[in-house]
Amino acid sequence: MRPLLLGIVALAFAWGQPSNALAQAAGAADKPLPYAKFTAGLTPQRGLFTLWRNDGKVYIELSKAQFDTDFIQSSEPANGLGGFGVTPGLPYIAFARIIRFSRQDDKVAITWPNTSFVAPEGSPAARAIAQSFAPSVVALAPIAAIDATSGNVVVDASAFLSDVMDMQNYLRVVLNTTKAPEGAYHLDPARSFFGPSKAFPDNVIVEADQTFSSGQPAIVDNVPDPRSVLIKVKYNISKAPDAGSYMPRIADNRVGYYPDILLNYGADRLTERQLRYILRWNIQRHPMVYYISNTVPAEYREPIKAALLTWNDAFAKIGIANAVEVKDQPDDPAWDEDDIRYNTVHWLTLSNGGGFAQAGLVFDPRTGELVKTSIVIDSDLVRFGAIEGQDISAPSREDAGFAAHEAAYGRGMRASAGMGLWALRAMDEIPWNAMPPNYVNDFVRSIVLHESGHNWGLQHNFIGSEAYSAKQLQSKDFTSKYGVTSSVMEYSPVNIWPKGTPNGDYWQLVLGPYDYYAIKWGYAPVPGAKTPADEVATLGQWASAWSDPMYRYANDEDVEWGDGHAIDPRVEQFDLTNDNLGWCDAQFTVVDRLFQSLEPRFATSRSTHDAQRQAFEFALFPYTQCASIASHYLGGEFLARAHIGDPGASLPLDPVPVAKARQAFALLDRYVFSERAWHLSPRLLRQMVYTEWVTDFPQAPWQYAPPVRHDEPLTAIAATLQGRLLGQLFAPVVLQRLDDLSLKYAPGATMTLTDLFAWTHRSVFGDLASSSEVHRNLQQWYARVLARLVLAPDPATPYDAQSLARAELVTLRAELVRAEAARSGDALVRAHLAALRNVADQALNARTVLPVSPSTPAPAS
């Protein structure tokens, strides 16, 4: 099942029960004290709730009106582990929950009611929901004091010291201690205590400073001792919006807003019970006011401000002026970023961050109304330093969840920016140690423009790059007005073209046509509508423009290539133009020139060779990205979201023409699979090393973390990419789709399963006497892919693919016999041919027992 937006970054945790020790302590609590006696000598923190502190504990005062009332609870870490999963202030769309306080004799029940199931209040369905879905009890907290006059009660907040966020399990995942349970972290209640507490008009903050200890180091052998870490968690309880102050808007799958998904039991004659409200800011009530934190370096404040204010252009089009305001954090001790009335932009400095930016959202789960937004930027994002080539070659789309996607976005943008910088130097557009004017500032601006789009509720739009032609992107007049894609919600790479070709803006600096369209759809009032249902017809008409390339939308699920779910090769990340194969061809040209210039241009007197190595590693990003894009045309189909009757609507699926598939495979053949690929100057391969620093002291990774090898492991880098592509092309679901194309389209209109095997065979085995270690490795790999398809196919593999794999091995064996008879090549080549023939012989001659009643192949999930 694909991750639902709420992307919540890996720290969107479920609440657990209080520890046994806390529960016992609560049960043994003394009877409530008189209010005056309890508060004597204490200083209140007055706000949404009054907070009291006494003897190391925090207490919450509740009025009668606050019992059985809905509040919104969210949480986030106040500190981090330097980039190891837990990050300070990292925004978690924190699965914001409704929290309630209910009086139970001399205790208060703190509960999470089920708000995902809805029906008209007082209806039989509402009563059925109450009986069917039990609430979650966070804690039964003892009452410490009662005010006999007002009826206010003071409640012990010690439940928040328990592992409410399930941090223990999260640390097990992010630090990968599953295989070494002795290194797992556990909450140590004896070393956990309350941090600062704060009270504001619309929210209160209770910070739990919790020690998690491990039997042995699970991070690194450095100082401070990692066997115990103090993680500070801010619990935020805020005022829920008044029910009548906001009308939810029902989502439409043709326009990209994050959905707040409920189950509607108010009627039974429904196509589906899911009721999807979009997440959006209540612009009718107040503008979105951002405060730029004083942690943000001065040189980036103006581009950040410009990006945030750009959204005013879209709102002005629908008659809403000054929808966004931006202010610097005031030099006022009374101002506090924890006040939920303030939306903030933060800057992080992490030893292991790697460069990312993420948007944070807190919303009312009953309606989807956004109540707080934020953006965090890791400082490594603007440091275009070294990135290991094999890391760039590793797949990123398989990561699950909003946070993982946005982290991949940050890594990709940073890699793209670094590649663009080195490419401009290689083409002599700038001196080798120079940077184009505004390059970094415009880069930051484009990042913030994207992240602030999430703050308005917008999802990613990974088909936005298809709206424009190459010629348009080569025109600065065009890109300065329309951007490099139709939407800032794309993952758009640096807009760089080969030497001698005109070039538009490098980055997306303005809203695209889709962004104006989406803001109108989500925020423009619908005349006469009094309920969400009243808006549906008009909104449906507005959304009917999907077939227009300027207004198309496709989201994260549409780029889930790792499990075979994705199908449309137009829907990609880090691609440009309505011909992304043509764009990739141009990028390969840019990369080729960069490779050729690494030795003569970047080898300067009295410098290390790090620049050459870094430039090479940055160049791998578009190289591997374009290889992936090309592979998605093989077995792909064009997918439309248009509804029946929409203007220009096609059938949901259209074919990828066979000529397009051939073009895609030709790119793979030339740059990835064939004997011609992966040829670099031997002299250059001897130069691309890192600067070595040695010390006998134990060190953290940020101090000294050399790669395994001094040189660039070209064969391993190539094998990583080749293996990934072959794994995808011969995955059961892709083979199934290729086999099924003949059922949907006329003969010869699309590529076939036979084409896949034939094209791959010619590319991989076209030169059996290869002198290239890279190509010999690929031949061994692919021979084993074929052998597995014959001997141990996945149950979902179609029989046609198994038959073709056997036929390919028969052909390969015959070719190998002829090649060996020619007695060509050195001893290594002859050994290689013999090993390949052995793989084919074993697969073809193996004795296997077939089941009498073979099971039906499993359908694709």
Decide which structural class fits the backbone: alpha+beta
Structural domains: how many = 3
Q: What would you report as the Rg, rounded to the nearest angstrom?
A: 30 Å
Low-confidence spans: pLDDT under 50, at least 5 residues?
A: 1-29, 218-224, 386-400
N- and C-termini, Cα separation: 8 Å
Give a quick account of the main beta sheet: strands, pairing sense, barrel closure: 12 strands, mixed
Overall body shape? globular
* E-strand count: 23
Tally of contiguous helical segments: 23
- How much beta, percentage-wise? 15-25%
**Average pLDDT for all residues:** 88
Oligomer: single chain
Give helix % range: 25-40%
Description:
By secondary structure, the chain is an alpha+beta fold. It is 34% helix and 16% strand. Helix 5 crosses helix 9, helix 8 packs across helix 15 (610-631) and helix 14 packs antiparallel against helix 15. Mean pLDDT is 88; it is low at 1-29, 218-224 and 386-400. It folds into 3 domains: 20-240, no CATH class; 288-525 and 533-695, no CATH class; 752-845, no CATH class. Strands 1, 2, 3, 4, 5, 6, 8, 9, 10, 11, 12 and 13 form a 12-stranded mixed β-sheet that branches. Strands 16, 17, 18, 19, 20 and 21 form a 6-stranded mixed β-sheet that branches. The radius of gyration is 30 Å and the shape is globular. Strand 5 and strand 6 form a beta hairpin.
